[in-house]
Amino acid sequence: MAVTLKDIARRVGVSITTVSRALGGYDDVAEGTRQRILQAAREMGYRPHTIAQSLRRQRTNTVGFIIPTAGPRFSDPYFTEILTGIGNEAAEHEFDLLVSTRAPGAQEQEAYERMVGSRRVDGLLVIRTRCRDERITYLVEQGFPFVAFGRSDLDLDFPYVDVDGTKGLDEATQYLIDLGHQRIAYISAPPNLMFAHYRLAGYKRALERNGLPVQEELITTGRLTQEDGYREGSRLLTLEHPPTAIIAANDLMALGVISAAQERGLAVGRDLAVIGFDDIPLAEHSHPPLTTVHQPIYEIGKMICRMLIQLIKNEEPVQRRVMLEPALVIRESSGGC
Amino acid sequence: MAVTLKDIARRVGVSITTVSRALGGYDDVAEGTRQRILQAAREMGYRPHTIAQSLRRQRTNTVGFIIPTAGPRFSDPYFTEILTGIGNEAAEHEFDLLVSTRAPGAQEQEAYERMVGSRRVDGLLVIRTRCRDERITYLVEQGFPFVAFGRSDLDLDFPYVDVDGTKGLDEATQYLIDLGHQRIAYISAPPNLMFAHYRLAGYKRALERNGLPVQEELITTGRLTQEDGYREGSRLLTLEHPPTAIIAANDLMALGVISAAQERGLAVGRDLAVIGFDDIPLAEHSHPPLTTVHQPIYEIGKMICRMLIQLIKNEEPVQRRVMLEPALVIRESSGGC
DNA sequence: TTGAAAGCGCTAACAA
DNA sequence: TTGTTAGCGCTTTCAA
Questions:
Q1: 277-296 in A: which are within 8 Å (CB) of B?
Q2: pLDDT (average), residues B1-18
Q3: Does the pLDDT of residue A159 top 90, yes or no?
Q4: Using alpha carbons only, what angle is made at residue A168 by residues A320 and A318, rounded to the nearest 5 degrees?
Q5: Could you tell me if A233 lies within 8 Å of chain B, comparing CB atoms?
Q6: This prediction's pTM
Q7: B71 pLDDT exceeds 90?
Q8: Which of chain A's residues have a Cβ under 8 Å away from the Cβ of B96?
Q9: Which of chain B's ends, N or C, has fewer CB atoms near its CB within 10 Å?
């Protein structure tokens, strides 16, 4: 059976209260008593009963994270990386991490309501913000602490971290234009995702600034999977006037584009330039290595988790709205190096 | 403020106990009373306080999962997929999922002790079993419920699910031999992982059965990353007598091998055959599509989670030791189709 | 410096 | 069929 404060109290011959105080690090315990209690606790292998603490303190020391998965074979490396960041940061603060996996939709919303309503977590992490994001509306409405990765189009004030996708895509596009490309295609993300618009805007802005036409036939959409990148890439490459460069809204789709190009016997980097977004580890070791807009995914995971914990502890976070600069990482898939 | 049983009791004019019983679905509550209670609960938006329930019932309805991450940029798609399986199955049983992310080592062991000791979870999921696996020794010692993905070399009885890696690699190797390959290299997994040995044994068994020599220079090891696959692939391909086929212990390394081969101007599937293991979604859409030994990762996640929940609920699981058959999925990277 | 007592929200044994 | 009581393990007043 597990050791409780009661057991220690009985053994040392003091009250439960005193044991609690000694173990809690309060200074109104005589030094001798404290020593005896600490030693007994150590010898008996005492561990606080987190659940009991939570009930009493009305704080769970747990953050919740509902991963928006897309079907069973969902496996975007992006999520593992951000989860690692979140998990490691939580551990540093001795917070636990409660995870749910739900596809966007009714069940997902239910998961949010469950986590909030059951008071199992002190706060939530929301990633991949969406247009008119119901998760955010709900959490703001409930006054429940949360931090998002991504901005929102709602007129609501909430803490978030985001990467300037407009700037990232502008830079990527400009880079291709500087290399002489005139027909640059873009595979966008599902339009319900906030970042889809920012990135698309950056692509268009760069074209317009350089006096290049924004052509509808060169803009398409995929669901962020390698499969969709492959399919849309194939489609673009079989156009009557195919593009000489393709940018994808994320790396996974860019890798799909590379497959599509290679299947057609094109040498990526020479016959076709390809650029992605995210800089997942896979990007560096693809063939050819993928030029991409880097966002520090692991660090972002740590950051949103840290901000949330500060919020929970009522330490005002240093910054409520963090905007990070993306960085174009030039590798071989874009040619010109 | 959150609604409690007390609030409902006061409003309906009955005792807390009666409310608890009505909501708990017991049948010793008068139908009229029950209806009034249910309605009040609905109207007031009652949600049970999970933490309080846990403390009282001595059951958390939570399973723990400590993900063995390898560094910050850790992003094996394999883990997202198994996590999705675990998470979805847990949700079906109304169990929560507590996740930690720790690199194998002292901190990881601490995480196990913390989860067990703090009584935050009713059971644990252990994946990627290792030789003399300390996690398993500890959990068996503690008598703590857990289910593993992978066997162990310890003389201990515990429930697990595994895929017959020996058979999988035997089949893959035999397939290459049947295609006429004589020099087949193998990039193995870190030897502390249990599956490394099973798979290696399958490779050797197939060679020996066919009277082919097991050559040390054709057997090497990588840490399961694409980067290591790339590096070891490059090394193998620059041998004086390079292999005509390379099998990797997982898909990520196989993808690295493909990159290495393509960099050298080799056409994978024609000049070099490559086979992986896992069948991550990425494998299907690589260029060329990767021949690989399929294991149903998502289903395994669901299965170990289901078994654990049965164990926790004291329903004896149908099977304590499940061995799944792998299936060779032939695509273009191995040629011959 | 210490202890008694109350109570977080819930369940369950027992009594009525 | 319902209510009273006790208590899960802990923290935190308040009083001594």
A1: 280-282, 284-288
A2: 93
A3: yes
A4: 15
A5: no
A6: 0.95
A7: no
A8: 98, 100, 120
A9: N
